[in-house]
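Service request form, structural biology core

Requester: graduate student, group of Dr. S.
Request type: structure prediction, single chain
Budget code: on file
Notes: please return the result as C-alpha cells.

Sequence provided:
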Amino acid sequence: MSEPFRNVLGSAGQPVEQWPYEALVAAIERGTLGDWVPIIRAIDQAPWGSVARQVEDYLGYAQPYGVAPLLRSTIERARTAAEDGTSGGPGRAAPMTLTASAATPTHHAAPT
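Core staff response, request fulfilled:
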C-alpha cells in the first residue's frame, strides 16, 4: 500500500493477526494483491481464526470490487480443506477467483 495504515496504530510489518480491524479494512480497500497475500495466508492457516472472521464480518457489509470474491472464496476453500483434512496451500484461490471476479488479471496488476 502506498500509505499503509493511515490514522491507525499498527504496522504493515506486524503479523496480520496483530493488525487492528481498521488496518485490515484499509489493506482490503486500498491495498493491492501484494497487500492481500498476507491476509490470504492468515486465512489459510486459520480458517476460523480472527482474521478470517474479521474479513467475513467486513464482507457482510462491504463488497470491494475485485477483492471481495477473492477473499470470500479463500475463506470457503480454506474451511472446506480444513473440514476435509486437505490443504489447498496459501494463495491457491487467486487464479480461480480472478476468473470468477468481474476484474481481469491486468486490472489486479495495474497500479492504482
